[in-house]
Amino acid sequence: MAKLHPNYYMLKARQEELISRKNNVNTDFYNGIFERYENPVLTRDHVPVEWRYDLNPETNPYFEERLGINAVMNPGAIYLDGKYYLMARVEGADRKSFFALAASDNGVDNFRFLRPIVLPDTCPEETNVYDMRLTQHEDGYIYGVFCSESKDTSSNDLSAAVAAAGIVRTKDLVNWERLPNLVTLHSPQQRNVALHPEFVNGKYAFYTRPMDDFIETGSGGGIGFGLCDDITHAVIDEEKMTSIRRYHTITESKNGEGAVPIKTSKGWIHIAHGVRNTAAGLRYVIYAFATDLNDPSKVIAEPSGLLIGPREAERVGDVSNVVFTNGAIVNENNEVFIYYASSDTRVHVAKTDVERLTDYVFNTPLDPYRSPDCVRQRVRLIEANQEYLKQ
Ligand code: BGC
Ligand code: BMA
After folding, report:
1. Radius of gyration of the chain from Cα atoms?
2. Which residue's CA is the nearest one to ligand 1's atom 11?
């Protein structure tokens, strides 16, 4: 066999340096709620050289990248046997995404891609897949719920598409069984669907996001919640509303479930996304809310405003002004790792712990929804603080 091209070794060395680089807390940022880190945890440069280059010098004499990667984003996340796994959305230069698994021992650096996931190809019309939520369900399976996108052949508009929730399951992150897509009897389209980790009234429970069409949620009022009897033919009739969209807030245009909810002693904590429209296009931020332990559709806490917004370098990328999350991990020390992508380009981690996150969700004031009330809310804070400043 002919020798490998010298640039292969150059790329491998660079990649090794990138992957083994220690990630430190970004000390310029403080809000007491979570820490940001200096470096992204997963980027297109983390994708193995062998996944992109043909190493055969005869068929690739100039060592050109044959199958480029455009972006790595929106990972599902799961903690298994002390390892932090990310199921990333990897987007090829061809705009199609696939899922690939990466793992790290500490959740903040040294993430290495293990393998691309080849899902059972059961939907002939499916064109793209993305944004998988991984749920460790009490039935013993790990489920992946993702967006399955197809062309809308009923419309003359070339861009018209249909979004549905695809469902796969596994016991080992290696072998995947594909189940039929979720059917929601009252919503024509679905994106941002996540499976709740526990049975609710003996049924499988999904967070949904009813939509009238592909981009606009239309009459869809927010993050839905529905039950189904049989996960192998998942059909949801009624979708109750949980966190709803509101005028002149961060969720005005759309919102959607992000990570699988985190169980705490006070309630299920949800880390979701909210979208508003601007002259510069849609702006995506991450927010949090909590639902009742016994009735996970009932919102019991709604801290005002955003939890994570795109900052500095995060603001720029393929789809600028976006932070998006669909995966979080809680480890045995109650540390919380929120994985989020910025501008549909790379993946970051925000770290907190269950106690601080709970305090944020339950003790951050509510949004008064009107500017005059918001300023009064702030003045009350300032006046109360005067007492402490006198000390
Ligand atoms: C893109 C997604 C995006 C969606 C709605 C899809 O075609 O792949 O990233 O969220 O359109 O804009
Ligand atoms: C969506 C999501 C994400 C993406 C976001 C911004 O609707 O499903 O895939 O991060 O748009 O482009």
Report:
1. 22
2. 215
Does the structure show a pLDDT above 90 at 71?
yes
Among residues 229, 123, 132, 127, the alpha carbon closest in space to that of 180 is found at 123
Query: Rounded to 5 degrees, what angle do the CA atoms 99, 145, 310 make?
Result: 70
Question: Which residue's CA is the nearest one to ligand 1's atom 1?
Answer: 130
With contact defined as beta carbons under 8 Å apart, do 273 and 287 qualify? yes
Query: Is residue 80 classed as helix, strand or coil in its secondary structure?
Result: strand
Residue-wise pLDDT for 303-336, tens only, equals 999 999 999 999 999 999 999 999 999 999 999 9
Cβ(84) to ligand 2 under 6 A? no
DSSP state of 56: -
Task: Pick the residue whose CA is nearest to atom 12 on ligand 1.
Answer: 215
Query: Is 218:212 a contact under the CB 8 Å cutoff?
Result: yes
pLDDT value at residue 220: 79
3-state secondary structure of 178: strand
Give the residue carrying structure tokens 């979208």. Answer: 275
* 131 touches ligand 2 (CB under 6 Å): yes
- Cβ atoms of 147 and 153 within 8 Å: the answer is no
Query: In sequence order, what are the beta bridge partners of 258?
Result: none
Q: Which helix (H) or strand (E) holds 364?
A: none
Average pLDDT over residues 243-251: 97
387: helix, strand or coil? helix
| 344 Cβ inside 6 Å of ligand 2 | yes
Any idea which ligand is nearest the CA of 284? 2
Q: pLDDT-based confidence at 65, cuts 50/70/90?
A: very high
Burial class, 232, CB count within 10 angstroms (exposed 0-12 / middle 13-18 / buried 19+): exposed
With a 6 Å cutoff on the Cβ, whether 215 touches ligand 1 is yes
C-alpha–C-alpha distance, residues 153 and 157, integer Å: 9
* Rounded Cα–Cα distance for residues 73 and 204 (Å): 28
